[in-house]
């Protein structure tokens, strides 16, 4: 488990930074510690950011666990600080700690469906 923690890299994103856009490959999981970010979509070249999330949340966990492309746009509202773990190191967790990874994967799926996908598609 310590190996996983050693793979966390500190990161800071300035205000207005696009973290992910639609159809991006998600090659890192972002753990937002402080800050606010918005989630939305693009229709007819117009970006609609509909939801705002606080720190202490995870971006990209679902996509990294299930090898999916990003369906939504994630953009910082104010400066965000946190940590990232690259997808290859994230997937090592599956090999090294399968029970923990299974739990993380279930939680990522639940959060994505109920807190992001379903509200944005309504």
Quick description:
The protein has helices at residues 2-6, 61-66, 87-96, 98-121, and strands spanning 9-13, 18-20, 28-34, 36-43, 46-54, 57-59, 73-76, 80-86.
Polypeptide structure, described:
There is one protein chain. This protein is an alpha+beta fold and 122 residues long. It contains four helices and eight strands; from the N terminus they run H-E-E-E-E-E-E-H-E-E-H-H. It has helices spanning 2-6, 61-66, 87-96, 98-121; strands spanning 9-13, 18-20, 28-34, 36-43, 46-54, 57-59, 73-76, 80-86. The protein has a four-stranded antiparallel sheet. The mean pLDDT is 92.
Helix and strand arrangement:
Blueprint: H1 2-6, E1 9-13, E2 18-20, E3 28-34, E4 36-43, E5 46-54, E6 57-59, H2 61-66, E7 73-76, E8 80-86, H3 87-96, H4 98-121
Antiparallel strand pairs: 1-8, 2-7, 3-6, 3-8, 4-5, 4-7
């Amino acid at each position: 488990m310590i190996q996983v923690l050693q793979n966390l890299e500190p990161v800071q994103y300035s205000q207005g930074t696009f973290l992910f856009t639609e159809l991006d490959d998600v090659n890192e999981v972002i753990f937002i510690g402080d800050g606010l970010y918005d989630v939305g979509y693009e229709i007819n070249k117009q970006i609609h950011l509909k939801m705002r999330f606080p720190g202490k949340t995870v971006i990209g966990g679902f996509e990294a666990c299930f090898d999916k492309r990003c369906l939504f746009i994630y953009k910082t509202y104010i400066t965000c600080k946190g940590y990232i773990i690259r997808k290859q190191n994230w997937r090592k967790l599956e090999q090294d700690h399968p029970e923990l990874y299974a739990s993380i994967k279930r939680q990522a799926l639940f959060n994505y469906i109920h807190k992001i996908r379903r509200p944005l598609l309504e």
